[in-house]
Design brief:
The structure holds 2 protein chains of 2 kinds. Chain A is mainly alpha-helical. Chain A has 8 helices and 2 strands. In chain A, α2 crosses α4, α2 packs across α6 and α3 packs across α4. The longest helix of chain A has 23 residues. Chain B is built from 4 helices and no strands. Chain B starts with a helix and ends with a helix.
Chain lengths: ~200, ~80
Amino acid sequence: MLNDMELVQQVKQGQVEQFNELVNRHARKVFRLTQHITGNREDAEDALQEAFLKAYSRLPQFQGDSQFYTWLVRIAVNESLMKLRKRRVGGFSVSLDDPIETEDDFLPREIAAWDENPEQKYARQELQEILDRAVSSLPPIFRTVLVLRDLEQLSTEEAAEALNLSVPAVKSRLLRARLQLREKLSPYFRKGGQA
Amino acid sequence: MGCRKLLSEVSNYLSGDVDAAVRQELEAHAAKCPNCWVVIDTTRKTIQIFQGCEPYPIPESLQDKLQKALQKHYQESKGLNS
């Protein structure tokens, strides 16, 4: 089986339909990313489509300095953020700026211990719904950093570059994102909690 | 190290991104502070659960739409190359 870079080369050399294989390989992961960042099904679908079309159009400029998938992720993140910026909720733009930070951000409210294998308390579909709800309730910039670092496994430096943030800014947002997600999941996973 | 300092470092600690001295201080504090131990443990589990999140299936309608749009681009490329 050809690796991503070999497929990219073939597409560049004119075997354009080989791009379908790249789509087949990565579309489900890209859809998870666009869904998590936009928090909206329609936007997630549009962002995915735009991401692949732009990736195809820009392929001649892709020099292979990073993995193809990392490059694709950057495009998909930009498309998702553009959707977020365009979407208006109640007449106000969704802000990608930081929410106002307060001292309370750091203070855990839930200090109950969790089960040893907490995810096993739920069926796959139910677990997915719990996670989706919790992640989409985080501020957009927090969930974007969380997705890039913890799901897509980008390094702090790669995430900083993709989001045009400094490295300390990425670390600070990741800290808050992880702690806030922990708070939101705790009622579901604490010992003796709802199952 | 106090509880607040530990909280500010917990994410870096779980990313393996603290130096040895901070790691030792943090672990020494957690060993005697049950609340901080729980926060570290549950934050670690939060990351694990999130990382276990599976890729999403692509709806057939989206697949069709994307495929049609790509085919158009492929044809344009072939036209340019011919």
